[in-house]
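Most newcomers find our protein records easier to grasp once they have seen one. A learned vocabulary of local backbone shapes supplies the integers on the structure line. Here is such a record, shown just as it appears in the course material:
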Amino acid sequence: MPVVWLIDAYRAGERTQLRALVQALGWPCETKQLGYRKFDLITHLLPGGSLRGIHRASRESLQPPWPDLVVSCGVRNEPVCRWIREQSGGGCRYVHIGRPWADPSLFDLVITTPQYRVPNRENVVQNELTLHQVSQSRIAQGAVEWKNTWRDLPRPLIAVMVGGNSGPFTLGPRAAARLGREASKLARDSGGALLVSTSSRTSAPATGALQRALDAPHYWHVWRPAGEPNPYWGMLGLADRFIITADSIAMLSEACATGKPVDMFDLGGMCESVDQPRDFRLGGLLYRALLNWGWMPLTRDISLVHKELVASGRAAWLGDERRPLRVQDSTDMARAVRAVKGLFGEFGDASGVD
């Protein structure tokens, strides 16, 4: 059975994807946490393998015996993973998740999603959504843990999962207040209640504007790095419907995995058919300029994911007429697992992976 090294990501959403893939593979795995040197950008952009971008203690943790497979993501980890493959004499396979900064030919396998606009190659898996750890058993457990907390709220329960600024799109007070009004109207019209949770990317001004705009029965949770329990898995398990701010492809992926109706909330400028007012943010303005005139690898275009979700019927824009949910023959995770196993000559059935 192949031995895996997981070179851990430095962003939460990417860490979730890495762990989901390794868990689905079911192979022995060792996780490597690296420390990175500042201002060593050249190392990240060179095509070869190198450990120059990481601290000495991290370099010393990378010792033989070398793994059969290294799995990672992020530009800082690319030269490290190539170095590991070189040290193994080519026996180690390198799987990269998400955006590859180097040419795809420098990886054994790239598992990506539409927003990164990676060219189609034999070693590139184009998934619709990001990898996740949502399973029927996991969300059932969340439902058990939170059902008493929300037992007095009227049904249907509508989960409102809130992200934050993303690229050219801004979740400021204007968009947050509109989200509160539209979600509240949906709850009142259906006779139900809202389960509302912010996230690590939700700004304080947006949080305040959202809370003030809620005028339907609701449960309110503000994300904190530690402290009170996080209701996220309970929301996935107990909600009858989801409203997800469309900046978060990870939350969209996880909500869609439940098979329940998913509405995407337009922060402003996301949905082509409706011109919603936008919150101003200089960074968002600059990002839009990069999308229009910049070097493509520097940017991601999440609108490509939105278009595929709407076209496939897996999600709809909040307020639009809903299409029937699509039933998939194969999940993104199953497709990824088959591709990884294919690197080792294994094409076992991955249809049960969820």
